[in-house]
Specification:
Carbamate kinase, 8 strands
Length: 213
């Protein structure tokens, strides 16, 4: 169901937000992001970015030179790291989170913070997850954001995209390649899940429901 206002979820103490890599070409991106965030309920907001153009360059290199899937995966995570560092530079009001373990041991507080996706996957996903995310093209920033939400004990995951989805379940979004194939499994157990079109003036969004509904 597509809605144009923030749904009444009750208190959201910690949310994870993934800012899609395609949004980096959007004029006025930071103003739009700040406007969207200001309309949300107060929460600790953890931010990571999609790989965008740097990840696209790695995909082209893979096409030309046939990289191993693991090597291509980690290069794409480096692209996400670069994009997230760029976000931190242009959002001076944001903090930086260096340890998800420490975050789990603390009470959420109202702030905006960026998370290094490379450090998170290389170290803490392997330490804290019974089954770390695979080193595969089937894992993109969407699944990584979902895993971050689960391990940081976030109440909500928001995917900021350039377009609104045409489906409202994670499984159908994966089938249509709107999110990666691992996303439905990675997102299991997240209490609230939204996809927002940040390029839309009214921030049109879809609230995802469970596949069993």
């Amino acid at each position: 169901m597509t809605v144009h206002e923030t749904p009444e979820f009750g208190a959201v103490e910690r949310r994870v937000v993934k800012l899609g890599g395609s949004l980096f070409s959007m004029p006025g991106l930071i103003d739009a992001f700040r406007d969207w965030l200001a309309a949300q309920s107060a929460a600790e907001t953890l931010l990571i970015a999609g790989g965008g153009a740097p990840a696209d360059a790695i995909r082209e290199l893979n096409r030309l030179h046939n990289l191993s899937e693991s090597a291509a995966h980690w290069l794409c995570i480096r692209a996400m790291q670069l994009q997230t560092e760029m976000l931190a530079a242009i959002l001076p009001e944001s903090d930086r989170v260096t340890s998800i373990q420490e975050l789990r041991d603390q009470s959420p507080r109202a702030r905006l913070a960026t998370v290094d996706p490379y450090q998170f996957l290389r170290e803490e996903d392997r330490q804290l997850s019974a089954e770390p995310l695979p080193e595969s093209w089937n894992v993109t920033s969407d699944s990584i954001a979902a895993r971050l939400a689960m391990l940081s004990r976030a109440t909500e995951l928001v995917l900021l995209k350039s377009v609104a989805p045409s489906h409202d379940t994670a499984s159908k979004l994966a089938e249509s390649n709107f999110v990666d194939r691992c996303f439905p499994r990675a997102a299991q157990g997240i209490m609230h899940l939204r996809v927002v079109n940040l390029r839309d003036a009214k921030f049109a969004q879809v609230v995802l429901r469970s596949s069993s509904e």
